[in-house]
Model the fold of this input.
Amino acid sequence: MSRPTARAVHLVSRPTGAASAENFAFVDVSVPALATGEALVENLYQSVDPYMREEMDEGGWALHAPLEGRTLGRVVESRADTLPVGALVFHRQAWRTHSVVTADRAQPLPDLAGVPLSAHLSVLGGTGLSAWVALTRIARLQPGETLFVSAAAGGVGTAAGRIARLLGAGRIIGSTGSAAKAAHLTGHLGFDAAFDHHDGPIADRLREAAPDGLHVYLDNVGGEHLEGAISAMREHGRIAWCGAVAQYDRPQDPPAAPRNLYDVVGKSLRLEGFLVRDHLDARAELYDFLVPHLRSGAVVPDETVVDGFEHVVDAFLGMLRGANTGKMIVRL
Done:
């Protein structure tokens, strides 16, 4: 009996500067016969994320080999007792139409009636968990406090705005890459103020949006954003550093460190970076907090969904250029 064929994406060259479609290739691969303890998953949704740009550089993804990423799929063949046929699972063998997984590398999804499946890659996925950890564990946002979120129209940023509002934040400010996205943040996502970071120095925009200063900053950008936020922080403010999209395309020439870095001392600030993979135990907290709001409709995941596996590279590159609002997801 012949085995099915899967379609996959491989990295075939490393970019210098911005990534391009020429760095990737679509390949057809034969699905091997399953060994005991394995299951074949037909992938349904794939996440594309900013961190993947770093994985394209030396030391990250191997060339001419399968890539990784967050994926949701349905088991279609199984020799693993804990992964029965028909089960919906989360795993990290992305960038392919079908994946062979083992029970220790695939997590059955909880049955959350009334919650869209794609939410497991957005507000309930890695981006939502990053926002939750940043606000509750790292920055410890308190009711009434003023929060600034950079790259606020992206996956982490939109989730942070939703969660911060539910946590009782007093004023939420976001930066983004266009006037349209700024309007989306204030008109649909509960931000009190938002600005296009191209419109002038970040420090000036923050003085206008938060004249009394910031208690908390969730940094997804680095560079000038971090410098501007430090200048606007109140004494004893907290900065949770999640990402640095300002330097992903130029790892050999990153932005200069903030010129006012010593203000971290002068203002008694706390700046802490984190990796969400070190806080996976917080997922249950996020579910308990957010699922009731998803079921009630009080929170609607902010997602940009691209249809078709053939468009997965385009979706990834578009996300890096800011073509999405909310989480960029590919529906395979």
About this structure: Residues 283-296 form the longest helix (14 residues). DSSP finds nine helices and 15 strands in the chain. Residues 306 and 330 are 5 Å apart (CA to CA).
